[in-house]
């Protein structure tokens, strides 16, 4: 009986491993009827593949040349050529890895069992450093925004952190059933979150956590196949599902012209506050070098907007000074947030 079941499982895995479910945006060879939600962006699955493993696909990262794919059951991390879909090499870490992110030099990996974040050399896969996030829940999703790591906690918050483990701030994951932000990616100034149990991919604001867009995850089948890692590379969104099918999907969301180095775009503007910390009042100074639509607001540590200083105004080049509004609480921490198109710059503000 055990042999029969094992043989059935092996045949099933091999069958799904070799089958193409998407080609040129069309789902083939599957009875799934999960329609993609298009909201403000295109979302076209142009291809999908299985690198050949009968395993549970989880985290994804793109290092500028290769896709890194983490598998849970083995465990193993595969480096994959995104053009040929061939596995270049495989590393065998300890059991419990979840998502991954590439910072331009090193591969960062979240570990579910130890609740740690690991830093690996991509050539030798030698462990370079590690740190423990400040939350009690397990670490899941991981993304790199060009300067900081974003770490998803299973309880539903997402933390912006330095590479040494210091927390800059955190935002809520405001999706229905917000637990398990299992995969994280960063592109076009926003975070993208793969929701495991709900089978969706969310585009969210990095200041408030507000949901900007959401899409049904390709390959998601309730109870059988679950949304896992997301990342960006080569002008595409890459996403993976784990469970029965274990496929990686290449999705066109219209980011072909977005800079692929994942370095932060520095706008021709600057924001400063003096004095900071302050007691009575402070001056917010804004230098605009190129005419642009600008929003300047103040939020609290929960991401709630408490005041809007400049509301979506097309500012001419020049130097602007603004006083702070009344009603800010003593001993409180706020963020003054500058928004220029997709660029967002928060500056911490402390009232004594």
Note down, in words, how this protein is organized.
By secondary structure, the protein is mostly beta strands. The protein has 2 domains: 12-252, 6 Propeller (Neuraminidase), CATH 2.120.10; 269-350, Immunoglobulin-like (Sandwich). The protein has one helix spanning 2-17, and strands spanning 22-23, 26-27, 44-49, 57-62, 67-71, 76-80, 87-91, 97-102, 106-111, 116-121, 127-131, 139-144, 149-153, 157-161, 167-172, 181-187, 190-195, 200-204, 211-216, 225-233, 236-243, 248-252, 269-274, 283-288, 292-300, 305-315, 318-323, 333-340, 343-350. The chain has a 4-stranded antiparallel β-sheet, with no helix packed on it. Strands 4-5-6-7 form a 4-stranded antiparallel β-sheet, with no helix packed on it. Strands 8-9-10-11 form a 4-stranded antiparallel β-sheet, with no helix packed on it. β20 and β21 form a beta hairpin. The longest helix is centred in the N-terminal third of the chain and has 16 residues, at 2-17. The protein is elongated.
Question: Kindly, what is the distance between the CA atoms of the first and last residues, rounded to a whole number of angstroms?
Answer: 71 Å
CATH domain fold name of the largest domain: Neuraminidase
Put simply, the count of helices is 1
Number of domains: 2
CATH homologous superfamily annotation of the largest domain: TolB, C-terminal domain
Radius of gyration: 22 Å
Low-confidence stretches: 1-38, 258-266
- Arrangement of strands in the largest sheet: 3-22-21-20
Overall morphology = elongated
Order of helices and strands: HEEEEEEEEEEEEEEEEEEEEEEEEEEEEE
């Amino acid at each position: 009986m055990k042999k029969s079941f094992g043989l059935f499982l092996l045949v099933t895995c091999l069958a799904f491993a070799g089958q193409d479910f998407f080609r040129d945006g069309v789902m083939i060879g599957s009875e799934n009827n999960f329609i993609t939600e298009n909201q403000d962006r295109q979302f076209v699955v142009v291809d999908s593949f299985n690198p050949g493993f009968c395993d549970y696909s989880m985290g994804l990262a793109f290092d500028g040349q290769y896709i890194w794919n983490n598998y849970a059951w083995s465990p193993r991390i595969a480096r994959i050529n995104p053009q040929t879909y061939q596995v270049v090499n495989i590393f065998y870490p300890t059991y419990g890895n979840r998502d991954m992110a590439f910072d331009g030099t090193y591969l960062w990996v979240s570990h579910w069992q130890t609740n740690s974040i690991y830093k690996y050399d991509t050539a030798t896969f030698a462990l370079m450093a590690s740190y423990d996030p400040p939350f009690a829940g397990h670490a899941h999703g991981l993304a790199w925004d060009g300067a900081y790591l974003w770490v998803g906690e299973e309880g539903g918050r997402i933390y912006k952190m330095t590479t040494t483990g210091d927390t800059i701030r955190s935002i809520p994951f405001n999706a229905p059933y917000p637990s398990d932000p299992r995969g994280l990616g960063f592109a076009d100034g926003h975070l993208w979150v793969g929701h495991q149990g709900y089978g969706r991919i969310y585009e969210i604001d990095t200041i408030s956590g507000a949901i900007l867009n959401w899409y049904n995850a390709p390959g998601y089948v309730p109870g059988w196949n679950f949304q896992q890692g997301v990342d960006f590379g080569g002008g595409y969104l890459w996403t993976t599902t784990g469970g029965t099918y274990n496929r990686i999907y290449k999705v066109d969301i219209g980011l072909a012209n977005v800079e692929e180095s994942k370095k932060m775009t520095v706008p021709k503007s600057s924001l400063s506050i003096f004095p900071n910390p302050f007691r009575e009042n402070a001056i917010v100074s804004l230098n605009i070098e190129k005419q642009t639509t600008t929003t300047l607001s103040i939020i609290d540590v929960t991401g709630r907007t408490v005041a809007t200083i400049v509301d979506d105004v097309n500012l001419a080049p020049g130097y602007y000074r603004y006083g702070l509004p009344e009603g800010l609480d003593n001993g409180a921490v706020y963020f003054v947030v500058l928004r220029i198109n997709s660029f967002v710059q928060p500056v911490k503000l402390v009232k004594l």
